[in-house]
Amino acid sequence: MSAVVSRFSVHVEQIDGFEFRVKFDKEQFAPLLVDEPAPLGRDTAPNAARVLAAAIGNCLAASLVFCLKQAKVAASGVTADVDVQIIRNESRRLRVGKVNVTLHTDLAPNDPALASCVGTFEDFCIVTQSVRQGIEVAVQVQGREKSGPPE
Question: Which of 39, 61, 111, 116 might form a disulfide with 80, Cβ 3.0–4.6 angstroms?
Fold first, then answer.
């Protein structure tokens, strides 16, 4: 494991049913609502898979913009279309099976800076590269301590 460079935290709290509020570690960040589609949830907000797709698309688009900026090319109008395939694994559990991302720029397809970035920008996307490698996730479940005298 490499040395920790930075760290942040988010807090997820249940609102009702499968609807949750995500509070970020910076006051200037608005809370994010998430929910599950029916029949579990009420589909009032994106679910975790959609948030993951947004994170992948955003990270790749930002990495491309960064690469173009380093090449002294003004990148505007960069967009990402992210298509997610949900599959069932061998245990019949739903999983993200594949993510297809198409990035669009206002640059000509044969622009030298774009051609140069195409070979390198993905390596700087921390989300996509982390997902590709698999991320260690440690989980603990804790019950709430009872208050008052023991029964």
Answer: 61
Collapsing DSSP to helix, strand or coil, 87 comes out as strand
Please give the helix or strand (H or E) that residue 101 lies within, else none.
strand 94-104
pLDDT lower than 70: segments of the chain: 1, 148-151
For the entire predicted model, the pTM comes to 0.88
The two three-digit tokens of residue 97, written as one number: 């099976």
CA separation for the pair 87, 89 (Å, rounded): 6
Residues for the chain: how many in total?
Answer: 151
Fold that domain 47-133 belongs to in CATH: GMP Synthetase; Chain A, domain 3 (3.30.300)
Terminal alpha carbon distance of the chain: 45
Domains in the chain: boundaries = 8-45, 47-133
The type of residue at 41 is: G
